[in-house]
Specification:
Helices cover 0% and strands 51% of the residues. By secondary structure, it is mainly beta. The chain is globular, with a radius of gyration of 14 Å.
Length: 121
């Protein structure tokens, strides 16, 4: 069943001026000063990182996809680690609608599937 967009629903995207690092198993998977913070009604903020600052050699495209009525179709990526593969650890909106186009091609990681996302000055 398709979900109709809600007029009271908001998505704000802001440049994150802090250093953002994705770390798992003691290894830095991503390290950037160019993250975008996406704030969405009813959800925790999500850090979107430019692919240029992500170790893409550790990511493997998944067959899994999903659809958000506000952000479009998401593609997923497994994270390859020294101890195995973490299924669908990251996602990306590769062709989002115009109002959220700033996140196009950026990657976000599930906080629950990795060790941590650090934000420092």
């Amino acid at each position: 069943m398709a979900v109709e967009p809600d007029a009271g629903h908001r998505i704000d995207i802001a440049v994150n001026r802090r250093r953002v690092r994705v770390i798992h198993g003691g290894i830095t998977v991503a390290d950037t000063r160019d993250a975008l913070t996406l704030s969405e009604t009813g959800l925790p903020d999500v850090q979107y990182l430019p692919r240029a600052d992500v170790n893409m050699a550790r990511l493997e495209r998944s067959d899994h996809t999903s659809h958000c009525p506000y952000k479009g179709h998401a593609s997923y990526f497994h994270l390859r680690t020294e101890t195995g593969r973490i299924e669908n650890a990251a996602w990306s909106y590769e062709t989002p609608p115009d109002d959220v186009r700033r996140i196009r091609g950026y990657l976000a990681f599930y906080v629950s599937r990795i060790d941590r996302i650090d934000e420092t000055s």
